[in-house]
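User: Good morning. I'm curious how alpha-L-rhamnopyranose would be positioned relative to this chain. Could you predict the structure with it bound?
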Amino acid sequence: MKRILLAAVALASVSFSLSAQDVFEADRARWKETAQNTTPTLHETIVRPVAVVDAVSDPAAFQGWRYEKVGAPDFYDKPFSRINTITLDFGKHYTGYFSFHTKTLTNCMDAPTRFKFMFGEMPGEMNTPLDPWKGGLSRAWMQDETVTLTEMDQWTTIPRRLSFRYLTIELLGTSSGFEFAIDDSCFKAVSSAGENVVPLNPDCPQEIRDIARVSEETLRECMQTSFEDGPKRDHRCWSGDLYLQSLANRYSFRNFDLVKHCLYLFAAYSREDGVLWSNMFDFPTVHPQYGSYCLPYCLIWNSTLLEYLKDTGDYDTARDLWKVARTQTEHALTYVREDGLFDINAHPTWIFIDWRAGLDVNAPMHGAMIFALQQTYELATMLGCTDEVKEYPALIKKMTKTARKAYYDKERGVFTSGPDSQVSVMSQTWMIKAGVLNQKEAQKAISNALASESTVMPGTPYGTHYLIEAMINAGMYDEARAYLVEYWGGMVRKGADTFWEAYDPDDDFLSPYGFFPLNSSCHAWSCTPTYFIGKYPEIFQK
Ligand code: RAM
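Assistant: Good morning! Here's the predicted structure, ligand included:
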């Protein structure tokens, strides 16, 4: 990952020096203002713990741990030195700010009092020793905080925004001859989502309702001042996640201003050559993660703009941002060879398709490029500016032909990818999304890929989203429903309140970062059952 990012930084600096001029100079101030003006207000809700729980080590539980309720949270008048350590369950996932109040019970404090707070989304994350640190990302993402009070009888707020369901409070040190209580605690939960305005059919089965509810919770928690990828880790808007969130938003909160806000964030702060960064933060002030450039994410931004236009009919925005969309495909076309093959090595870049280790991205990226050309052409058609992209239809044809020639194994009825002819689900799904196969061939490709033990499976709900979509495109409706119920329903059965960033039904400890407690367990790209269930009621709600 680090190496990839360094390569991306190198590429970024090359492009900066090549493009002497800022291609969007005339637009940036206006775009920034629009991004600013569409920043949503966060709704605040005060919540309190609903139970005291005990951790139970249980090999049958997800990641080996579960919580058992042991009582009500009635510790507020008890001397905390006698409690010492307590775990509170807030009943569901929340994102926001934690405050607690201390009260002197007897005598007075003679030295500071120190606590350790550990906030977590999952029982396994809460109960796995974190040190010595083995994770591939910063240790500081973990939500353990040491707080030292030099005074009692006041409210204290932990400054950092938290994302959790469970909280363990441990007393690390206090003075003798004095007693105090934590006599109140509260959590200010924040989200910009509002209410779900798209109900399910009254006769929708319970297993689908459960999946829809968890999807909606996931999206709600990720809807902050931008569509964040995960409120626990990253705290920013990634273009790939944004696309899927915008689809799920259509069938739930229908907060299209937030989509507009995010589209403008990316546009306003794009690189000087007009290429989009992969992710954006909007606090404390708006900024991209400079150096993080991800080619498929640039392209998928075009699809988000197209879907936004279809949802809202906001032609002004689409016209305003059209040149950004065009820049993304034009830039990506510099990777396409004369013979129509997408060459991932044309320039150093990060091609993210799924977090599954070892996934070969040649074929999926080729499919993603064809799809991007189709979507950008569709956008141009809606905007009446196809003259600017008149070569795209011929290019799509050429790349489709090349896709079949270079990647389709007709004998086996699957796409293969890379020097080892790898068969992966992602190769099939992106080629099907790009329309490279007819329905019958698409059905065969998916069935063949899924039937083989050696097929590289997606390791995330992000990749799995595209598999469900490919199944629907291929007319495999029963299979799509069964897979969705098995995969997302599997998380629900394992105790999910919100859907997880990484999930493999056969490996509860899978992590893209080498250490599962780092995983985000409320992750934007996992919320798309809402989209499928809402868009295809005849498949999913019957
Ligand atoms: C991780 C996050 C995010 C994703 C990127 C590629 O940092 O999971 O959601 O979009 O990877």
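The CA atoms of residues 12 and 415 lie 32 Å apart. The mean pLDDT is 95.
Let me know if you'd like a different ligand tried.
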